[in-house]
Amino acid sequence: MEFEAVIGLEVHAQLSTRSKIFCACSTAFGAPPNENTCPVCTGMPGVLPVLNRRVVEFAIRTALATSCEVQKKSVFARKNYFYPDLPKAYQISQYELPLALAGHVNIEANGRMKRIGITRIHMEEDAGKLVHEGEFAGAQASLADLNRCSVPLMEIVSEPDIRTPEEAGAYLRRLRDILVYLEVCDGNMEEGSFRCDANVSVRPKGQKKFGTKAELKNMNSFRNVEKAIEYEINRQTELIEDGGKVVQETRLWDAAAGITISMRGKEEAHDYRYFPDPDLLPLVVDGAWVEELRKTIPELPAEKIARLTAAYGLSKYDAELLSASRALAAFFEASAALFGGNHKVTANECIQWKESIASGKLFPETIAHAVEDRETGAISATVSKKLVEIAIETGKPIREIRDELGLTQVSDAGALEEIVSRVLASNPKEVDSYRAGKSGLLSFFVGQVMKETRGKANPRIVQEVLRKKLG
Length: 471
Ligand code: ADP
Ligand code: MG
Ligand code: ZN
Known about the structure:
Layout: E1 3-14, H1 53-65, E2 69-70, E3 73-74, E4 76-80, E5 90-94, E6 100-109, E7 112-125, E8 129-136, E9 139-145, E10 152-158, H2 165-182, E11 194-204, E12 214-219, H3 222-241, E13 249-254, E14 259-265, E15 275-276, E16 283-284, H4 287-294, H5 301-312, H6 316-322, H7 326-338, H8 343-352, H9 354-358, H10 364-376, H11 381-394, H12 398-404, H13 413-425, H14 428-435, H15 442-452, H16 459-470
Parallel strand pairs: 12-13
Antiparallel strand pairs: 1-10, 1-11, 2-6, 3-16, 4-5, 4-15, 6-7, 7-10, 8-9, 11-12, 13-14
Helix pairs in contact: 2-3, 5-6, 6-8, 7-8, 7-10, 10-11, 13-15, 13-16, 15-16
The structure holds adenosine-5'-diphosphate, magnesium ion and zinc ion.
Adenosine-5'-diphosphate (ADP) binds next to strand 1, strand 10 and strand 11.
């Protein structure tokens, strides 16, 4: 029997606002423990949370960029559970009435386009963290760092529309790129600002009803999400083929071992006793505000890739590489505007130097002049690379460096003729062999001329002059 996987993803994205979701504490990463805390985010009695407008703005912009319907009214709820890094003993989240519903993201995987539905987007607060360090009364001590308490998160839940690990990876990468384009999340999976839980089930191919799902946690890279899902699909398939039954449970991905391990079953699942938070009014979103925010949505990755391909004649692959960052794509377009030659070469240069571009060490003019000088034959590809390297180091205009170092290529046929004649005169045997039919010797002569000119001759012109003189 053939099996098919059904996958739904829950993404937690940390919103890059400067302050927390319900108080004015800083969200800055790496502060000394408990420095970024106040009575509100440490859950002191009698304090009142106040919703950060910026958090709502970021979540609405995400909803618009993923074609969700922003709800006029949504409600914050208390999700009750005890944990030492959650002093209030509840997390404020949205439950029955979330901020946004029914969106989608278009992806491309396994060579075809596909639409993945988004069930809902809601806002919530993060919890703190425990540090297991030192000793207390002869036992292992645990310390609580509450800096992360109330850092704003957005949860994005997908429909169970995903069928393969590749589709899951494509969806996550596209979603991450959208959030980064919107500048609402830094998208860093390793540092935990973009986290994903994967729900996986299998069913006999052709069956309508979904199988029982397992929820996978603890994957900290796109690659690991794909690997964990792949492992889980195989595990469930083999289990069913051996006459067993998948149980609903939460499983942890062990990246080192490459396996998923049962963490807790359905019986141990929490009963969170959600109820509307009486300290927060229902959130009512004004339609005019949503329309204002709609105007701030930039060109998104899919649109940018399509436009770069059409407008500059680039391959889809190059357009994708350039669109990996808004800044890189903008740099390419600025370079292309300065020199209208071969955009493909300009694109390659931008991709080659993308790290220096990202760190602000290159100007569009540098790339434009390098590409133009190569196309006119003023410099060779080797010299171009060297000049760009020096430009990155010194910040000087590339043509100034070129002239200072005298690295202009000799393209003047007249000047090259004399050198070519000299080379031919000192290699009479090779000249005879060439004339007798060993045409492969042409590159030998080119090499000799390059040596004479210390690499500054334009190889195309050298070949022309050689062919002419050798008859
Ligand atoms: P829970 O209440 O267990 O969290 P939800 O209905 O909220 O379950 O769904 C959570 C995620 O699991 C969603 O992304 C959804 O698409 C996905 N999902 C639901 N049922 C299945 C299933 N049978 N197989 C795979 N994924 C599923
Ligand atoms: Mg869930
Ligand atoms: Zn605070």
